[in-house]
Amino acid sequence: MKGLYAESHFFPISGQRITMKDSFGRQINYLRISVTDRCNLRCRYCMPEEGIESKLGHEGVLSLEAFARVVRLAAQVGIRKVRLTGGEPLVRRNIPQLIRYIADVPQIDDIALTTNGILFAPMAEELKAAGLNRVNISLDSFKEDRFRFITRVGNLDQAKKAIFKALELKMNPVKINTVVIRGFNDDEILDFARLAYDYPLHVRFIEFMPVGDLLYWKKDRLMKTDEILEMVKKQFLLTRFKDIRGSGPARYYKAEGGKGSIGFISPMSNHFCAQCNRIRMTADGMIRGCLYDKREVNLRPSLENGSDEEILNLLIETITQKPARHMMDSGWGAKNERKMFQIGG
């Protein structure tokens, strides 16, 4: 095997498009951008109840134009898919304008959004008109009291409206991201699976993972994918389903007679790093090769005073330094390190 941070290479393909492979042969074509570290919810496994202790001020967050510049340059080294995350991306002002900027980059063929859904329905038509292709909605319970408990401040009806608005607008595939937490929502697994049976939705069960030093994470709350899958199989006849658009690390199954699909994301029990195709950008201009890699490359000075070539070189450096796999099993780390909401989930 090559060294952990061996040189990356360009591979020209048809139409003058470029793909870029890291030192482990993975094609890197996916950029996740956290447009803000702010959120309108306070989910217990993600953010402290009082919110962010030291928010990035207005001057600390990159402008929409700076994000757009990075996307334009990233497209030159093979990025084809962009996902906007947060925090909650829809609390960022003028987010449709950023989507329009990205949609104007000819190489980008997929623009997606991960949201808690609270603000989505009233904005959905404008977002689609701007160029948003599809949406993932994070939802951990269909029970009002539990939804309020896990989010602390959320409104379940607004999240439900988001799901069906996305279906109405045919922002397919519409995905539901459900973190399974033993003792909290594991008795709703079949309810979520039934949702994918009754509607053309793609429900993905995600293993509970440590994403910060918050006290809500406990190892005994982890329910592994194999256990979740066996539970679903007792109710539904499942067959492996072909990859769907933006399938990422999920393994998908189709329930016989169902309209959607059921997916499983297993960061803890069966890491998917060998297929990882992404890099990440934070709201303040740091680039990471992996959610769990503590090293970051700072684009901000080059965005403010540098050339496009400098930024391209930094993007290449990030891909070059992308590690072979995450080290999630060892926990998140020190209290002063970034949390998930500051990096983008």
Automatic annotation (TrEMBL):
Names of required cofactors: [4Fe-4S] cluster
Gene name as annotated: moaA
Residues where GTP binds: 32, 83, 114, 175, 278-280
Catalytic reactions on record: GTP + AH2 + S-adenosyl-L-methionine = (8S)-3',8-cyclo-7,8-dihydroguanosine 5'-triphosphate + 5'-deoxyadenosine + L-methionine + A + H(+)
Keyword Iron among UniProt keywords: yes
HAMAP family, per database record: MoaA_B (MF_01225_B)
Every Radical SAM core domain range: 23-247
Species in which this protein is naturally found: Syntrophus aciditrophicus (strain SB)
Binding site for [4Fe-4S] cluster 2: 273, 276, 290
Name of the protein in question: GTP 3',8-cyclase
Binding residues for S-adenosyl-L-methionine: 45, 87, 138, 209
Note describing how the cofactor binds: Binds 2 [4Fe-4S] clusters. Binds 1 [4Fe-4S] cluster coordinated with 3 cysteines and an exchangeable S-adenosyl-L-methionine and 1 [4Fe-4S] cluster coordinated with 3 cysteines and the GTP-derived substrate.
Keyword match S-adenosyl-L-methionine: yes
